[in-house]
Amino acid sequence: MSSRVHVRFLGSGDAFGSGGRLQTSILVESGGFHALLDCGTTTLIGLKRAALDPASIDVILVSHLHGDHFGGIPCFLLDAQFSRRLRPLVVAGPPGLAERLRQAMEVFFPGSSRIERKFETQIVEMAPEVTTTFEALRVMPFEVRHESGAPAYALRLEIGGRVLAYSGDTEWTEALPRAAEDCDLFICEAYFYEKRVPYHLDYRTLMEHRSEIRTKRLIVTHMSADMLGRLTELEVEAASDGRVLEL
Fold it and tell me: Closest by alpha carbon to 214, among 168, 153, 163, 169?
């Protein structure tokens, strides 16, 4: 059954706040089900600026274990505890997520990982190319090329009769067109305009492979200052903090 799918960029920036943008976090909502794609350290700021209740989030999906993509989870969990959240929360991502999250919580807030919460928190470590279902949401991860001390994923989501794909951070890999095949929206990193660096995708390389990506709509995100200075030259849409798409 189809329903409207809303995609809100809470944060569309890189790890270093280029352009004053918040770190990566994308809210996907359909039929009252709310999922976060990544949870960078500024995610709570993005939610609260948009007057969105963090308690509405059902699942946090993590593409990889770098701070600008999962470092907001310790604060998210503590905020939920202090605000007396009762609704269960799922945090899902690559193998190694549970231990890395425990370590992050102990570094940021010693003792916080051992405190009993009033809401159930389920940590799910997803296997590549295996579909995992979270109520109204189906997710299939694809392993990509990005060093983070654990596997890094692109994510393919099915929700509300729509299909979305998200690259996470990665250099070009054949996993990307597979993740985005026949999707309604592909959200893809374009870190630099044409400079090629290991483990990241630049806009020119993405455009060289554009014909391989079968998506109805392509929007680039996670842009450095270099990319932000050349937005008028892009042939595709660009994300910005607070931008909302309806599918």
Answer: 163
Residue 1 has pLDDT above 90, yes or no: no
In a domain, 171, yes or no: yes
**Nearest by Cα to 9 from 168, 243, 231:** 243
Q: Is the pLDDT of residue 239 over 90?
A: yes
Residue 246 covered by a domain:
no
Nearby residues of 7 by Cβ (< 8 Å), 6 or more positions away = 26, 27, 28, 164, 185, 187, 244, 245, 246, 247
> Where do we find the tokens 């706040």?
17
CA 190 from chain center: how many Å?
14
Mean pLDDT, all residues of the chain: 97
End-to-end CA distance of the chain: 14
Q: Give the tens place of pLDDT for each residue, 12-28.
A: 999 999 999 999 999 99
Task: Indicate the length of the chain as a whole number.
Answer: 247
* Residues forming a β-bridge with 93: 125
Amino acid at 139: V
Q: What is the CATH number of the domain that holds 114?
A: 3.60.15.10
- Coil, strand or helix: which one is 165? strand
Report the alpha-carbon distance of residue 90 to residue 124 in Å, rounded. Answer: 7
| Structural domain count, the chain | 1
CB 98 within 8 A of CB 113: no
